[in-house]
Amino acid sequence: MNPFIKHSVRFILFVLLQALVLSQLELGLGIQIMLYPLYILFLPIDVSVIWVMILSFFMGILIDFFMNTFGLHASAALLIAYLRPELLKLFAPRDGYEAFTEGNIRQMGYRWFISVFGIIAVVHHLYFFLLEQFKFTELLYILRQTSLSAILTLLLAILSQVLFFKTKKIT
Fold first, then answer.
1. Whole-prediction pTM value?
2. Alpha helices, DSSP H only, in the chain?
């Protein structure tokens, strides 16, 4: 499939999934599953940071539009897009990344994915909830929200890849 079409379809699916399904889940304890940062990680590793930031901004602003959150998702998505290149360098394989490599379990493996997306989820959720609450008196509540939401987001990200991505066949 053409990479442009594939990533365009993923963009639309992640926005709709987040805005219409995941935002409607009431899990209690302030838990919010935010799976859309996974799209930012799924972009090919060799895409320039400017394009990643532009796509992240538009994804975040669309989700903000649907969820009426006034830029919270856009700013959190921009933060992740900005930090993405440094995280990818930090966890780069010894031989570097191949061209058109995507940051998914199938291409990078479980250990790499859990490490990188785990950090992305924690940073994204912490920033989002800090902006949402905007009170340091609620720090324990924010940390609880962040940890529980990031764990559930990471588990759902792994589950979605196991269920929906084809595994490589060894011949």
1. 0.90
2. 3-16, 37-42, 49-67, 72-90, 105-108, 110-133, 139-164
